[in-house]
Amino acid sequence: MFEIFGIPAAALFGQLLLGLINGSFYALLSLGLAVIFGLLNIINFAHGAQYMMGAFVAWMLLSYLGINYWWALILVPLIVGAFGIVIERRMISRLYQLDHLYGLLLTFGLALIIQGLFRNQYGVSGLPYSIPPQLQGGTNLGFMFLPNYRGWVVFASLVVCFGTWFLIEKTRLGAYLRAATENPAMVGAFGINVPRLITLTYGFGVGLAALAGVLAAPIYSVNPNMGADLIIVVFAVVVIGGMGSIMGAILTGFGLGIIEGLTRVFYPEASAVVIFVIMAIVLMVKPTGLFGRAT
Amino acid sequence: MTTSILAAAMVAAMAGSAYAIDVKIGILNDRSGIYADLSGEGSVLAAQMAVEDFGAADKDINVEIIAADHQNKPDVASTIARQWYDEEGVHAIFDVPTSSAALAVNEVTREKDRIFINSGAGSADLTGSQCSPNTIHWTYDTWALANGTGTAMVETGADTWFFLTADYAFGHALETDTAAVVEAAGGQVLGTVRHPFPGQDFSSYLLQAQSSGAKVIGLANAGGDTVNAIKQASEFGITQAGQSLAALLMFITDVHALGLETAQGLVLTESFYWDLNEGTREWSERFAERNGGDMPSMVHAGVYASVLHYLKAIESTQSVEAGPVMEAMKSTPTSDPLFGEGEVRADGRKIHDMYLFRVKAPDQSQGPWDYYELGYTIPAANAFRPLDQGGCDLVQ
């Protein structure tokens, strides 16, 4: 077997694939953030907490009601999304006239409260959630053993990401949405209920976070801090991709997952900071992000 | 009404404290992060129980307990310790998991000449190169873990190792100590990867460990990191393919989080298990009753036993000064229902038996928290690093 930079090629392919898997979580989460920021101009710091809620609600459905993983994939985004809608209606909608900073502070505070409540109730060690029987086991790809569940995560994430992109950029509903953010008064004059559109968009973004949470539950420990650890990285991904750019969020999510994966092979100690180094460089060279447009 | 309260307050203020001795102890640990379940509020409860069981009030000793969250950060830990000693008048700090934070508190305590009794942290440097006349290390340390689990694994023929190490003081110490045990037994270390702390995804490191071909993957990390690494090792078929995992530090709270399905068969070293004997069961059941049904970890047990020993020393010396109290703690043998009979050595190391446990299979377990079966006892005399090998300048 040939080697690349002293690493056997087989091992390198394995690491690239793992990077892609982690990238799927980054992409799904940054996608939700980008949708909410791009269409509502809200910096949703509660996104990590909503991702954590997704994992917890999936666990609760299974342990208290016996509802399995596949139903959770559908029900959890709806439940947590509905929670998001209540938050948007009761709290966030009051801040649209104000500076972004207020939305950021509100959602940051909400994140701390939600995490605190879960920590109080369930502790921090985490709760076990099994991989669904249909996806247990793995496939030997020759260069690595790929757990079937991880393959499913990449597939599901790609479908959801590109589905969302298509919905917003290529359909009539998406066109309404984009128009409503450009000029809400004008779109309202055409008879479209703009506030409802905005509320549903927030609910959709939150639902995406919750979906990522369900996907993560079987492989990471389900614990109240799981979102807090991830959210900072995901924000960096969104900034690198360009705030509000849907395609930017998806591509940078997968791309940075791969770069982080490679760092873990060549210099593991730096894997926690590599994304932030890239963020700093991108901000210096292109402050609007790789895919962002100057406004 | 107001006047009577005021009057009462005046009387209290003029009389000073109604007790002969006032002691203030601080429980400094992780109350929100990955070590919060194994230390956290449970350690405060353990300290309270020690004060109650000691009967401090009847012995004319008034004990006040305060607690804070050091967030596993050395800078936060040393700031709080400094503030506690300077402004709050704290006499002794207990617990302090996370070795880097513990080493910071170790320094501040030496500088301020107070007392630090560590239960939660692992680094054996606390009684080795960094040892201090003001510090006692109670529950376990990296040398004892390496000696317990490392030796047990090597004896089964697992002589090639790959380490997955948390990249801070504790992980480094645990890796170094275990590597020494492995090499002394004729084994070989094939490689090491150091991951940022705390981590989330370990698959990349596990794959590196797999391709090294080592028989054992030594997990030199703790808490949520160990839980995630074990979970993912089983997911990637690493254990099924014949490599074994050595969880070099694992607490019962971690086993509880993993579930027996994933954790079964793991070998681990601890100094305390709730179901060890009559004394541990009686205390643990009282603890669980006040802790939402959750059994104590060995760190909780260590806080209980160390507070008890500390209060005994205060009673015998009738003082809260660091010098005499430390001397009394080192010269008096320790005795409590959780760790049995023991002693505090000149370098600050508390000596007691350690135990090698094997995690039960789901069908062997009677229910929640019935997780361990005792492999063997490592007698106190062999459980910790010999006094002359730590490099502590108190014993030169």
TrEMBL record, chain A:
One annotated GO biological process: amino acid transport
Bilayer topology term: Multi-pass membrane protein
Family to which this protein belongs: Belongs to the binding-protein-dependent transport system permease family. LivHM subfamily.
Superkingdom of this protein's organism: Bacteria
Keywords attached to this entry: Amino-acid transport, Cell membrane, Membrane, Transmembrane, Transmembrane helix, Transport
InterPro entries in alphabetical order: ABC_transp_permease, BCAA_transport_permease
Coiled-coil zones: none
Transmembrane segments: 12-35, 68-87, 99-118, 149-168, 200-220, 232-259, 265-285
GO cellular component terms attached to this protein's record: plasma membrane
Main location, first listed in the record: membrane
Name the record gives this protein: Branched-chain amino acid ABC transporter permease
GO molecular function: transmembrane transporter activity
Subcellular location: Cell membrane
Organism field: Pelagibacterium lacus
TrEMBL record, chain B:
Signal peptide: 1-20
Domain called Leucine-binding protein: residue spans: 23-360
The keyword Cell membrane appears for this protein: no
One GO term of the biological process aspect: amino acid transport
Listed InterPro entries: BCAA_transport, Leu-bd, Peripla_BP_I
Keywords, comma-separated and alphabetical: Amino-acid transport, Signal, Transport
Entry-linked Gene3D superfamilies: 3.40.50.2300
Family named by the database record: Belongs to the leucine-binding protein family.
Protein name as it appears in the record: ABC transporter permease
Species of the source: Pelagibacterium lacus
